[in-house]
Task: inverse folding
């Protein structure tokens, strides 16, 4: 196994798994406070969020950073 990946907390996590964790940890409203995107505010759903995040690198990066912050606490 690559040592770089062994120390990467995102390794093996799908975007869907990350979103589900964040929704359970923060809820949609708090997620929108941290990452201001419409798919967290207007009719939020995992499906619409996945569609947006898969095509928007800056938003995905912010969501991944929020995930990392949430697991460090």
Result:
């Amino acid at each position: 196994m690559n040592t770089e990946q062994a120390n990467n907390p995102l390794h093996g996590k799908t975007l869907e798994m990350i979103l589900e964790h964040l929704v359970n940890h923060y809820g949609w409203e708090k997620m929108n406070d941290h990452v201001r995107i419409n798919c967290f505010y207007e009719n939020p759903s995992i499906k619409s969020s996945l569609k947006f995040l898969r095509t928007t690198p800056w938003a995905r990066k912010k969501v991944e950073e929020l995930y990392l912050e949430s697991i460090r606490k």
